[in-house]
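Throughout our pipeline, every protein is held as a single compact record rather than as scattered files. The remainder of this section carries one protein's record, kept here as part of the documentation.

===
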Amino acid sequence: MTSRRGPVRPWLRLLVFLVAVGGTVVCARWAAQRYDDVTAYRHASVCHGTAQHGCLVPTTGTVTDRSKDESCTTDSDGVEHCTTTYHLRVRLRGQSQWLDVGAGTYAEAHPGDLADLRTWHGTVVRMTVRGHAETYPSPASDSMAWRLSGAWLFLGVALWAAASGRLTALAAVRGLGWLWLTFPFYALVHGILLGDASDLVLGVLFGALGTAWLIFVRER
C-alpha cells in the first residue's frame, strides 16, 4: 500500500501524468478556439440588411424593471464601505434578462423605455437607452478564462506526477502558490493576446506575489 508520505506507485504516476498532459492539451486547444471567437468579435461590424454570420445584430428591446444591490464591508478601523450595483431587466424577442448598468443609466432608464441593442450570437454585447451606452464582454472571453485556468491546473498536476508523486505534496503550502498563479497566468496570456493593459498589470502584480510564495516559503 502506498504511504501518504511516499510517492504513489509508478504505474499510477504514469497514468496521472498522461491524463494531466492530455487535459493540458485539450484545454489549451479549447482556449485557442475561444481566442479566435474573441478576436472575431472584436473585428465584427454591424449587420446591414440581412443578418450575416459573425456580425453584430442590431435590435430593439424594452426595459421592464430596475433593481440595485448594495454590499458593505468593514475595514480594520471599523469604517464601513459600501458598493452599489445597478441592473436593468430588458425584454428581447419574448425573453427577459438582467443586464448590469452604470449609475447614470439606472437613474435615467425606466420601465417601458426602448433600448437599442446589439447582439453577438444571441448574447447582448451593447445596450443604449436614453443616450447612455453600456458594453458587455463577449461570452467567449469568460470561456477562454476557464479553459486557460484548466490548462494551468492540469499542467501543475502533470509536473507533480513527473517530479514528485508524493500525496503530501498536493496539499503542501507551496502548492497554494501554484493555485495562486492560476489567475496571473490567465491574466498575462489574455493581456498579451488581446492587448489588455489592465490584465497585464494585474497578471504581473499577482504573479510576483505567487512566485515569491513559491520561492521563499519553506515547508515545516
